[in-house]
Design brief:
seven-stranded mixed β-sheet, 234 residues, Rossmann fold, alpha/beta, 35% helix, three-stranded mixed β-sheet, single chain
Length: 234
């Protein structure tokens, strides 16, 4: 039987596609409607669903992924006056209570002891911008689990040495490469088609893309999760 994975705070399905490629049947849950989510979807509060849904308790799911909102930890949190709740602790507590294998994803800076990091330089496709600049995706993300996980390491310094530039995918990024490099000292945001190529995502709006996890990340993590489930069943 194909193992089922519950995808909490699922957004438009970047993580879900990676887990599907790794071998899971995926069901998404999000507080907001997700018209472009490519798998079965339920609109609900993720933590309430995790705490109360019978499917979580009766063996319908074999693993859980959660991507609680990251704005409380993002490096851009000081650029706006909006307060965001810290859902990482409550999410972890509820996941542990299920007894199922789980993975939590969040940005670097979130308090995630023992988490491993995935980097787009090691997993995602490269792209060439309109002016023939060679681009790669950095997009470091942390993955915490109650199973042993391996991260990817980071190939960013080597790619920069070879002349590649970081292509950013986030809200508020500048299209002006010179300003981004010399003033902001970071990546710039190329056009949406180039962002989609870097992320491996072609079905989202720009806003959804800004928040998404590249499917290559969760395919990499999901294969490890599948291997752990198979090992536990032997």
């Amino acid at each position: 039987m194909t193992p089922r994975l519950l995808d909490l705070f699922c957004g438009a399905g970047g993580a879900a596609v990676g887990y599907s490629r790794a071998g899971f049947d995926v069901v998404g849950v999000d507080l907001n409607p997700q018209k472009r989510y490519p798998f079965p979807f339920e609109q609900a509060d993720a933590l309430h669903y995790l705490e109360n849904a019978r499917q979580v308790r009766n063996g319908f799911f074999q693993a859980i992924h959660a991507s609680p909102p990251c704005q409380a930890y993002s490096i851009t949190k000081h650029t706006h006056g909006v307060e965001h709740p810290d859902l990482l602790g409550p999410t972890r507590e509820l996941l542990e209570s299920t007894g199922l294998p789980y993975v939590i994803e969040n940005v670097v800076g979130a308090d995630m002891p023992g988490a491993v990091i995935c980097c787009g330089s090691m997993l995602c496709e490269f792209a060439t911008d309109d002016d023939y600049t060679k681009l790669f995706l950095k997009r470091h993300r942390q993955f915490e689990s109650n199973i042993e996980l391996q991260g990817t390491g980071c190939g960013c310094p080597e790619l920069k040495r070879l002349g590649y530039k970081i292509g950013g995918v986030y809200g508020g990024g500048s299209r002006d490469r010179a300003w981004a490099e010399n003033v902001r000292h970071g990546g710039y945001t190329p056009g949406k088609e180039i962002q989609e190529e870097l992320m491996g995502i072609g079905w989202m709006t720009q806003k959804e893309l800004n928040q998404a996890i590249p499917p290559a990340y969760t395919e990499f993590i999901g294969k490890q999760l599948i291997g752990s489930l198979k090992g536990a069943g032997e």
